[in-house]
Amino acid sequence: MNIRRSAAALAAVAVAVIGAPVQSAAADTAPPASAAPKLPAALYGKADPQYDGVWRQSLALLAQHTAGVRPAAEAVDWLAGQQCASGGFAPFRADTSRACDAKTAVDTNGTAAAVQALTTLGGHEAVTGKAVAWLKSVQNKDGGWGYMPGGASDTNSTSVVVGALTAAGDQPASVLKDGNSPYDALLKLALPCSGTGDGAGAFAFQPDKQGKLAANADATAAGVVGILGKGLVASAAKDGGAARCSEAGPAPERAAANGAAYLTRAVAKDGHLTSALPGADPQPDYGNTADTVVALAAQGGAAQARKPLEWLEKNAGTWAAQSGPAAYAQLIFAAHATGTDPRAFGGTDLVKALNATGPAPQQAADGKSQGTTAPADKGDKAGKTGKADQDGGSSHTVWWVVGGVVVVLVIAAVAWSVLRGRGGAGQRS
């Protein structure tokens, strides 16, 4: 779960808002169109992977596994091969024969997503072990994580790391820094129910400069799943509590219910979330609506997520076709969380469409592609639903920004990365 918006859109916003310095840096570092690197054959999606290659590959592989598809071996190997010696992952490394250095911008989100995918698929214990160790090494003193090592903790990054820890078999509550766990960090980013306005019970992305919290739907969808100890792939709760805002009850469960109550209010009118860039009219936010379906189902059960799910089934097909593999993956996660068939999602076979964006899945013994009919191998360690539902699975991919605070923070991150690009650093999606 992360702040989702396409790399191209983020770059455009950074140029428009931050101005000439970023334009100059981009001009200095961007290669001519004719010199664009050739996309790896093992990579899912055809868009420039500079900002989101690892993220979208991780989501694509997780979604295939969730739908009972055995991903292409070369696609899994490509993802594992993106790791730096430190254990972290950068958004994309075009030349993995060159070692990562101080200018390689490894990040927590892509690393955590890769851990969820590779742990769920199995067979890459050395890679995931190093990645989890790296994530623990960059944990902040408040118990959370920022997008970049050393950055202030945010709800989205902390939540996707929680999913990685759970997938790897750790108990997030026991992963401490200065006595604080990831749940402590998330609770500090949760708004109380006593607040005024529509933001009661929501999660903020980060505090503003004055330390105040502002409700953020994207962060709330991430936070609900994260504080439940789940990841990108989550099943519907069988005995979840009602989504109502309350100050009573155990802290993690209460915060999840409060966040779900906020999300329920947010989709009550139209069935979807909205987002808007500065100066633009609000538009339906498909990606974060899919994340909302997962969050509502994980907290209170499939019925709680019915309204946004039905909206996605009617409206999200074109968005996914335009956006690529991460978008199809998000919809498959929403289908999984609600017990919906991803092969008949509003008239779209999400699994077939996802498979078509990259290397063909492995073949079954009878020679048939596992991309359409094969169920998960129950004897495979990676195929056990309990393992996936703990949960190996945003939020990075097509990245969608919700709220002014998040837009500013993401713009700053992109601008910083572009400026670092003079030295060859990777950049964020």
UniProtKB/TrEMBL annotation:
Residues 377-390 have a biased composition (Basic and acidic residues). It comes from the Bacteria. Residues 359-394 are annotated as: Disordered. Pfam families: Prenyltrans. Residues 1-26 form the signal peptide. The keyword Transmembrane helix applies. InterPro entries: Prenyltrans, Terpenoid_cyclase/PrenylTrfase. The chain crosses the membrane at residues 398-419. Keywords: Membrane, Repeat, Signal, Transmembrane, Transmembrane helix. Residues 57-167 form the Prenyltransferase alpha-alpha toroid domain. This is Prenyltransferase/squalene oxidase repeat-containing protein. It comes from Streptomyces andamanensis.
